[in-house]
Amino acid sequence: MKTVTIGSDIAFSLETDDATVAEARQANALDHLRRLFELTEAAPVSLSHKDMVALSGETYRLYQEIHRDNPGEPDAWMYHKALSRAALEGRIKNPPPAALMPNEANTAIDLFGTGDLSAAVNALPADQHDAIEDRFGLLADWVLIRHRIHLNPNDRRRFLRLVGTASLDAGWQLRRNAEGDYTPDPKAQRFPAIESVTAVKPRQTITGLFDRWWAEAKATGRSQSTHDAYKGAIDRLVKHLGHDDAGRVTDTDMLAYKDARLKVVSVKTLKDGDLPGIRSVFGWGVDNRKLAKNPADAIKLKAEKKIRTRSKGFTDEEAKAIFAACLGYVRKPKEDARTAAAKRWGPLIACYTGCRIAEALQLRKEDVRKDSKHHVFDFNPAAGSIKSGSYRIVPVHQHLIDLGLLRFVEDSDEGPLFAKGSYKRVLDFVRTIVTDKRVQPNHGWRHRLKTIARNLGLDHRVVDCIQGHAARTSGEDYGDVTVIAMARVVAAIPRIVIGRADPASEQSRVAVQS
Length: 514
Description:
With 514 residues, this protein is an all-alpha fold.
């Protein structure tokens, strides 16, 4: 139990060097603090005597949960009980708060001496002091905050006495346990079920909804990238709201979130980035009867009119510039060798396969192999996120072989060829070469390959398979697109020539035509 002061920030020691324990304690503290803030926003409520007895049972159960398997020494509970009974009966003033880990021998001995504790407590006049707030206030607050109940101040004194009695009952039982008697305590049955308290309503959290949505979505094959994108949107919403209660989210809240987001992102980013995740999670809540309505439906956004002032794909000159930078890249001091490799090979692989940069960077050594007598890339969900959720085999362009890709793969260790987290570094690297923000570093190669394929009259269904695009009609989905068919298309893609410095064969010096 920690007693802290709430100011502009809250600081206290987690009292452990164990990172796992520290993380759990911090999460508990943050959850408790959020519950406190939510409690302060609620209106005060008056509770029946039965409801307050039910709530006081949380105190009894807390002590049992902590100590039932290892109750410690009987004397610790003897001193604990003496202080609690004396406080309840008004026999002492300014007692210490009831401790969850009793170590109150010195205080009890100072007050009651070393003789018979019961006689010493009884010898003090009753009803002389009001000490129940000092002794049981923190326990009572813990219960109320845990259940987000803003108790009417007029009921507090009665509730404190009930909490104190529950604490005393727990002390008696734990003393018996410490002495070796684990007979069930009949008094444990006196507390009505907490679910019977009308003011205690199970709260559906937004993050909890997300977790349950993801458990189902993952089972149906949704990708980790979808999880990450939706989680980011949910986290931004919770931060904006200042609470995590799904039941409290209104249409007005969502419209305010929209207005706040549009101050920092475009309509397209909000429409395609944030809203799909938020709508899906709240929609899952409605479908599964966790929520009455989907508050995200209040947001209506019209698609931005797209104004295009250039090709979506890299131009010949941009492609050559990227190639030259990749081939000439020199590893920086202290840079991970696999990050440097990602900058060299990631864009080159994307150039000749039209894959997403992320797909190239999650290739493993085992994913570059031979199939149907051709060297191939196996873009596989087992290595990382694939948007379609399905693997695809793509032949390796001869230019990549001439540039030494297979030697690089052969010399690499088992597992991923490139460093985890290199995606953004590669995109930033490409952006230093092609600064025109109208073309995307990730998709520029994909658009370029489609343009080249059309210029050369290549089979568009084969090109779609190479790039992981779905069949456009049911007829196109008939039959298989084989590695042999893809190899012919890949071989037809012109090489990018950057001049005499190109270390590839003389055959590589064929200018790109478009």
